[in-house]
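User: Is it possible to get a 3D structure for a protein together with its bound compound? The compound here is iron/sulfur cluster. I've pasted both below.
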Amino acid sequence: MSIDLSRRNFLRGAAAGAVTAVAAPVAEATPFGPREPKQLPPKAVGMLYDSTLCVGCKACVSACKQANGMPVEQPAHLAAWGEGTWDMAEDISGHTLNVIRVYQNGTMEQKDREKDGYAFVKRHCLHCVDPSCISVCPVSAMRKDPETGIVSHNPDACIGCRYCVYGCPFNVPQYQFDETFGQIAKCQFCNHLQKQGKLPACCDVCPTGASLFGLVTDLQAEAERRLAAKPGEMYTFARGKLGGDRPSHEAPLGEYQPHLYGEKESGGTQVRYLTGVPHEKLGLPALPDHSFAAVSEGMQHTLYKGMIAPLALLGGLVFLARRGVKSHHDEDPSS
Ligand code: SF4
Ligand code: SF4
Ligand code: SF4
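Assistant: Yes, that's possible. Here is the predicted structure of the complex:
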């Protein structure tokens, strides 16, 4: 069982909306504002997902399950009759860390076309540069590696409050509601494999290089190269790891949307998306360039710096006390 998506979206929207609604006017009128943005760690690793190369084979989904010890998932109405294929997760969940989703429009004749077309998109944690999930966690169970930038979750420290679920602007962390001792689940960039010198499982098995691993700075340069090249011209695509020794393959370059998703969204992430269809149509949300963490922490720091909050409270109490004394005097003119 999982929380209804619309309810979850409402809760997160309400929380984010409250922060933004309070922060925006306050930031213009007073010294309140986002704190300094966080910077990409020096050896940040990441992923370039090129939707135009993705053939929707879902090898990345099953490899992710295998690498992370996750069970198969099927919609209840199919699982009950044994009619599902081996794994049919509709979205990421407490037991599914990545999924391939499909965009469909009209006659669906052509791949990577918005009208009468279809396209694939991969969904998992983007390993934000300034993660909101870390900012809202009260016990530091979410952590960002200072070198690689991988955002991981420590189940031993986690108290199950699920603030990270509501705080993430990409709706990534999921709670295992169906387990007696449920945990938060999210992609941890196959940290355990990387420590053994291996690739993240999804990039390792991807046959086309649609999911490509590498240093974020290198992946950014590669994405910019693809954006600058002419659509349709033959291009050499790496597979597995950018700069690795795996044989590359040649294919005509796709026609990309000019927006490199993940570069700036929510303060920037360590995943980049190149797509042929506008990112909103693929379920990649439009987000501001600063993270909610930067806004809310900026406000907190300003409030508590110089004891503004306690002084404001004291001022309020003095005001109320004076008003009480005044009304007492008004009632008793002889006093
Ligand atoms: S995508 Fe969500 S879970 Fe992943 S690092 Fe960013 S805020 Fe955290
Ligand atoms: S990096 Fe690992 S955990 Fe994350 S989506 Fe890929 S296979 Fe799954
Ligand atoms: S393995 Fe590669 S091509 Fe296949 S669905 Fe995943 S990203 Fe797409």
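Residues 125-128, 131-133, 151, 168, 170, 172-173, 186 surround iron/sulfur cluster (ligand 1) (CB under 6 Å). The chain has ten helices and twelve strands.
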